[in-house]
Amino acid sequence: AVVSTQSTGTNDHVIVANSNKVPLGNKSVDIAVFCLSLMGTDFKDFIREARRVLKSKGTLVIAEVSSRIPNVTEFVAGVEELGFKTLQKEEPNSFFTEMIFKKIKPKENKGLFESLELKPCTYKKR
User: Fold this and answer.
1) Is 47 exposed, middle or buried (0-12, 13-18, 19+ CB in 10 A)?
2) Three-state SS string across 60-113, please?
3) What was the pLDDT predicted at 26?
4) What is the pLDDT of residue 12?
5) Mean pLDDT computed over 32-46
6) Are the C-beta atoms of residues 53 and 29 closer than 8 Å to each other?
7) Do 97 and 66 form a contact (C-beta atoms < 8 A)?
Protein backbone atom coordinates (compact mmCIF):
# COMPACT_ATOMS: atom_id res chain seq x y z
CA ALA A 1 0.00 0.00 0.00
CA VAL A 2 1.10 3.55 -0.66
CA VAL A 3 0.48 6.14 2.04
CA SER A 4 0.74 9.84 1.30
CA THR A 5 0.71 12.47 4.02
CA GLN A 6 0.66 16.23 3.80
CA SER A 7 -0.53 19.16 5.86
CA THR A 8 -3.77 19.60 3.89
CA GLY A 9 -5.99 17.00 2.29
CA THR A 10 -6.33 17.10 -1.46
CA ASN A 11 -8.28 13.89 -1.90
CA ASP A 12 -9.31 10.68 -0.13
CA HIS A 13 -5.88 9.10 -0.73
CA VAL A 14 -3.97 11.67 1.34
CA ILE A 15 -3.69 11.47 5.13
CA VAL A 16 -3.66 14.94 6.66
CA ALA A 17 -0.72 15.03 9.07
CA ASN A 18 2.36 17.02 9.85
CA SER A 19 5.41 15.08 8.66
CA ASN A 20 6.89 15.27 12.15
CA LYS A 21 4.11 13.07 13.56
CA VAL A 22 2.45 10.72 11.08
CA PRO A 23 -0.26 8.27 12.17
CA LEU A 24 1.77 5.17 11.32
CA GLY A 25 3.24 2.52 13.57
CA ASN A 26 6.90 2.04 14.40
CA LYS A 27 8.78 0.10 11.71
CA SER A 28 5.70 -0.07 9.48
CA VAL A 29 6.91 1.19 6.08
CA ASP A 30 9.50 0.05 3.56
CA ILE A 31 10.24 3.40 1.90
CA ALA A 32 9.91 7.03 3.01
CA VAL A 33 10.20 9.70 0.31
CA PHE A 34 10.75 13.43 0.77
CA CYS A 35 10.53 15.05 -2.63
CA LEU A 36 10.82 18.83 -2.30
CA SER A 37 9.00 18.49 1.02
CA LEU A 38 11.54 19.35 3.71
CA MET A 39 10.18 22.89 3.77
CA GLY A 40 9.39 23.22 7.48
CA THR A 41 11.85 24.68 9.96
CA ASP A 42 11.39 21.37 11.79
CA PHE A 43 12.65 19.31 8.84
CA LYS A 44 14.96 17.33 11.16
CA ASP A 45 11.85 16.10 12.99
CA PHE A 46 10.50 14.93 9.61
CA ILE A 47 13.63 12.82 9.07
CA ARG A 48 13.49 11.47 12.65
CA GLU A 49 9.85 10.51 12.08
CA ALA A 50 10.76 8.76 8.84
CA ARG A 51 13.37 6.75 10.75
CA ARG A 52 10.76 5.80 13.35
CA VAL A 53 8.28 4.43 10.81
CA LEU A 54 10.86 2.77 8.54
CA LYS A 55 11.37 -0.95 8.90
CA SER A 56 14.88 -2.24 9.59
CA LYS A 57 16.90 -1.73 6.42
CA GLY A 58 14.11 0.49 5.08
CA THR A 59 14.89 3.10 2.43
CA LEU A 60 14.85 6.88 2.84
CA VAL A 61 14.78 8.96 -0.36
CA ILE A 62 15.42 12.71 -0.27
CA ALA A 63 15.19 14.88 -3.38
CA GLU A 64 15.70 18.55 -2.68
CA VAL A 65 16.53 21.80 -4.43
CA SER A 66 20.33 21.96 -4.50
CA SER A 67 20.50 25.63 -3.52
CA ARG A 68 18.84 24.77 -0.19
CA ILE A 69 21.66 22.45 0.89
CA PRO A 70 24.69 24.53 1.90
CA ASN A 71 27.02 21.51 1.95
CA VAL A 72 25.82 18.17 0.56
CA THR A 73 28.66 16.22 2.18
CA GLU A 74 27.77 17.60 5.63
CA PHE A 75 24.06 16.99 5.03
CA VAL A 76 24.73 13.34 4.13
CA ALA A 77 27.02 12.91 7.17
CA GLY A 78 24.30 14.31 9.44
CA VAL A 79 21.65 11.94 8.08
CA GLU A 80 24.10 9.04 8.41
CA GLU A 81 24.72 9.96 12.05
CA LEU A 82 20.99 9.54 12.73
CA GLY A 83 21.26 5.93 11.57
CA PHE A 84 21.35 5.69 7.80
CA LYS A 85 23.86 4.41 5.25
CA THR A 86 24.17 6.30 1.98
CA LEU A 87 23.32 4.13 -1.00
CA GLN A 88 23.32 6.85 -3.62
CA LYS A 89 23.99 10.58 -3.87
CA GLU A 90 23.44 12.34 -7.17
CA GLU A 91 23.31 15.87 -8.40
CA PRO A 92 21.86 15.19 -11.87
CA ASN A 93 21.83 18.90 -12.68
CA SER A 94 22.41 22.21 -10.95
CA PHE A 95 18.84 22.34 -9.63
CA PHE A 96 18.33 19.13 -7.65
CA THR A 97 20.16 16.80 -5.28
CA GLU A 98 18.93 13.24 -4.83
CA MET A 99 19.99 11.01 -1.95
CA ILE A 100 19.03 7.43 -1.09
CA PHE A 101 19.77 5.96 2.32
CA LYS A 102 19.23 2.62 4.07
CA LYS A 103 18.22 2.52 7.74
CA ILE A 104 20.94 1.10 9.99
CA LYS A 105 21.90 1.49 13.65
CA PRO A 106 22.62 5.08 14.70
CA LYS A 107 26.22 6.24 14.81
CA GLU A 108 27.92 7.99 17.70
CA ASN A 109 26.22 11.35 18.19
CA LYS A 110 28.72 14.08 17.33
CA GLY A 111 26.07 16.73 16.73
CA LEU A 112 26.24 16.51 12.95
CA PHE A 113 22.52 15.81 12.51
CA GLU A 114 21.46 18.53 14.93
CA SER A 115 23.63 21.09 13.12
CA LEU A 116 21.99 20.49 9.73
CA GLU A 117 20.50 23.50 8.02
CA LEU A 118 18.54 24.06 4.85
CA LYS A 119 18.37 27.45 3.18
CA PRO A 120 15.10 28.95 1.98
CA CYS A 121 14.34 28.41 -1.70
CA THR A 122 15.51 31.19 -3.94
CA TYR A 123 13.93 31.82 -7.29
CA LYS A 124 15.39 33.78 -10.12
CA LYS A 125 13.25 36.15 -12.15
CA ARG A 126 13.13 35.07 -15.76
Assistant:
1) buried
2) EEEEEEHHHCCCHHHHHHHHHHHHEEEEEEECCCCCEEEEEEEECCCCCCCCCC
3) 96
4) 79
5) 91
6) yes
7) yes
Q: pLDDT tens across 60-105, in order?
A: 999 999 999 999 999 999 999 999 999 999 988 888 999 999 999 9
Cα distances from 110 to residues 27, 75, 77, 79, 113, in angstroms, run 25, 13, 10, 12, 8
DSSP single-letter state for residue 25: -
Cβ-contact 42, 73 below 8 angstroms: no
Exposed/middle/buried for 54, CB within 10 Å: 0-12, 13-18, 19+? buried
Give, in degrees to the nearest 5, the angle at Cα 14 between 34 and 25. 70
pLDDT digits (tens, 9 = 90+) for 1-28: 677 887 777 777 788 888 889 999 999 9
- For residues 67 and 38, the answer to whether their CB atoms sit within 8 Å is no
> Identity (one letter) of the amino acid at 12?
D
- Three-state SS at 115: coil
